[in-house]
Amino acid sequence: MSSNLKPAFAYTIIYVKDVAKSVDFYSKAFGFTVRRLDHSNRWGELESGGTTIAFTPLHQHETEDLTGAVQIPSSNRERNPIEICIDYPDVDAAYQRAVENGAAVVSQPEAKVWKQRVGYVRDIDGMVVRIGSHVNQPKQN
């Protein structure tokens, strides 16, 4: 494959009610560093290693006509078709920090059969966030 066609995952964009509040929440609840919050509060970014977590309003008029309206779950019994997964060395401490900073409890951290410790919370917009330990997967040939 040509080097100019090699992909690099750049952003995960989360559509939220209030960009500034979500950036502040993720910074405090999950420990991310704020990279950018534009003066209009219509775009925010967090540093998260090899990619960027970005936030934009639910009703993004620049793309809504082109790609359609964002669909929001109608209750906590539904969820978005994506979840955010964040790795921490100390899952229990990270989970406690998230809850203390406004994350809604979904399930307490527990050991899973796939050898990961995992707890679930919801962010201030109802997005499911998995707080888990890193799992080393065997390399595939």
From TrEMBL:
InterPro entries given in the database record: Glyas_Bleomycin-R_OHBP_Dase (IPR029068), Glyas_Fos-R_dOase_dom (IPR004360), GlyoxalaseI/FosfomycinResist (IPR050383), VOC_core (IPR037523)
CDD domains: VOC_like
Domain VOC: 8-134
Gene3D superfamilies: 2,3-Dihydroxybiphenyl 1,2-Dioxygenase, domain 1 (3.10.180.10)
Pfam family of the protein (one): Glyoxalase
Protein name as it appears in the record: Uncharacterized protein LOC111484544
